[in-house]
Design a protein that fits this description.
Layout: E1 2-5, E2 13-14, H1 15-21, E3 30-32, H2 40-46, H3 51-59, H4 72-80, E4 91-93, E5 98-102, H5 112-130, E6 134-139, H6 143-152, E7 158-165, H7 171-178, E8 185-190, H8 194-206, H9 208-214, E9 216-217, H10 224-240, E10 248-253, H11 258-269, E11 273-280, H12 285-292, E12 294-296, H13 316-323, H14 328-341, E13 343-345, H15 348-355, E14 358-362, H16 365-379, H17 385-397, E15 404-408, H18 416-423, E16 444-446, H19 450-460
Helix pairs in contact: 3-4, 3-10, 4-5, 5-6, 5-10, 6-7, 10-11, 16-17, 16-18
Length: about 475
């Protein structure tokens, strides 16, 4: 399997190189040169199989030719054996045609664990084979950071630096990052928004000499391996509700478009996904894009669902690649316009292609609290604020007769204040995290400044081990 950049000016790479590279050198995101396809018979054969078995089967075409290919099934089994629920991503029924798939049974209680726990193992395996060391630099709006630090902690092959917006995550999210007691793990509070953090990371990657000196790589959803691993839970959920013999829809809370792009990836593999309901909070750039065909940057406003407080949705670039027929020059022009002018617009023909699959939805904080309360009263299920936005989208946009699966993205205890406001009930952390508020915190604080970040990483990273 070879991978190509959405902007068309970077060399095609193998899976191992894409894993270690993260962002393409032309600023684009990597995608498979050709998508594998699963027949209906192959999908039926995966029904009822353990999650790890399905995961290995779904991801195997994407890692073809990798140095980890021989040991991949063992790595996948070991990864998901750490999850608290034997099904890894169990389904719960909320209504006649509405289901939840719980993605918060990993070590840090959020869906990011599903991919990042595997990503950490992949990094270590590839780097050990190549006798190399790399520096991970990533940005988080809340959950990616703790999942990445947990997945890569104590690695002898990696230094990990995670930027998060100061004061714009929940306290649980922050503490899960700042209490990681590992010498190679660095949490950095940036005076700015998630989009500022993301821009700093991209700017650091654009500094080619620094990138080469320290061997920079990424764990954000710009890294293809993240998308690859997230495709799996869409496949398992769809199979459980009758695919490939009947279609399903998914409601996906998302800010950066990575999670819902993984659902689109499952559809590309042959899973009969009818609609993808893109659920946004008050930071509604994706809703506006799906309604009007315009991607226009707005101000990031704090909300009860902070992991979605984003106005630059990086993974839309991967969708643009398909919409332009794989025209990297056209994608690069659109992204240049986005950065230069603050937005771009797509023509009616391209938006008609988008509308075949995607529907947009937005919900403010008052609506989020209302959905948490209504679901708790009706079903006894406690939703975190992100999940509530997705459930509201499903209830508003789902089509009769088509099972709709809404993603439960985080454990409600990660957002106890919002849940308590809505339900009067304060959710408790699992026993293994019961002492989280007693653990000492350790974090750097930096301005929204590239030079400051460059100095900090340079002072604390061990640098690139020669190949």
């Amino acid at each position: 399997m070879r991978y190509i950049s959405t902007r068309g000016a970077a060399p095609a790479l193998s899976f191992d190189d894409v894993l270690l590279t993260g962002l393409a050198r032309d600023g684009g995101l990597y995608l498979p040169e050709s998508w594998p396809a699963f027949s209906a018979a192959e999908l039926r054969a995966l029904r009822g199989r353990p999650y790890a078995e399905v995961a290995a089967a779904v991801m195997r075409p994407f890692i073809a030719g990798s140095v980890v290919e021989r040991d991949f099934e063992s790595m996948v089994r070991q990864t998901y054996a750490r999850f608290d629920h034997p099904a890894v991503a169990p389904l719960k029924q909320l209504d006649s045609d509405l289901w939840l798939t719980e993605l918060f049974h990993g070590p840090t209680l959020a869906f990011k664990d599903v991919a990042l726990q595997l990503l950490g193992r992949l990094f270590d395996a590839v780097l050990q084979r190549r006798r190399r060391r790399l520096t991970i630099v990533g940005a988080t709006s809340g959950d990616t950071g703790s999942a990445a630090l947990e997945a890569c902690r104590d690695s002898t092959q990696l230094d990990v630096f995670i930027l998060f917006p100061k004061g714009r995550t929940s306290e649980v999210q922050r503490r899960q990052m700042t209490t990681v007691a590992a010498k190679n793990a660095h949490a950095i509070a940036v005076d700015g928004t998630f989009d500022d953090c993301q821009d700093l990371v991209k700017a650091l990657f654009a500094d080619q000499s620094f990138r080469d000196k320290y061997g920079l790589s990424a764990v954000n959803s710009i890294n293809w391996a993240r998308i690859m691993a997230q495709i799996v839970y869409y496949v398992t959920a769809a199979l459980a509700l009758g695919a490939p013999d009947r279609p399903v829809s998914f409601a996906v809370p998302t800010g950066n478009f990575g999670n819902v792009y993984a659902a689109y990836g499952a559809r590309r593999l042959g899973v009969p996904i009818h609609r993808l309901l893109v659920a946004s909070n008050r930071n509604d750039i994706l809703y506006r894009f799906l309604q009007r065909g315009e991607m226009k940057i707005g101000a990031v406003e704090p909300s009860l669902s902070p992991s979605m407080d984003i106005q630059v949705s990086s993974n839309v670039e991967r969708l643009l690649f398909d919409l332009t027929g794989g025209n990297g020059v056209a994608v690069a022009a659109l992204m240049t316009s986005f950065r230069r002018d603050g937005g771009f617009a797509l023509d009616a023909q391209r938006m008609a292609q988008v509308a075949e699959v995607f529907r947009g939805f937005r919900l403010d904080d008052a609506g989020t609290l209302r959905q948490i309360a209504e679901t708790f009263r009706a079903t006894g299920e406690t939703l975190d604020p992100h999940t509530a936005v997705g459930v509201a989208a499903a209830r508003d946009l789902a089509e009769p007769g088509v099972p709709t699966i809404s993603l439960a993205c985080a454990h409600p205890a990660k957002f106890p204040d919002a849940v308590e406001r809505a339900t009067g009930h304060r959710p408790a952390l699992p026993a293994r995290l019961a002492d989280l508020f007693e653990r000492p915190e350790r974090a750097a604080e930096l301005p929204n400044d590239l030079d400051a970040l460059r100095r900090y990483v340079g002072d604390h990273a061990k640098g690139l081990t020669p190949a």
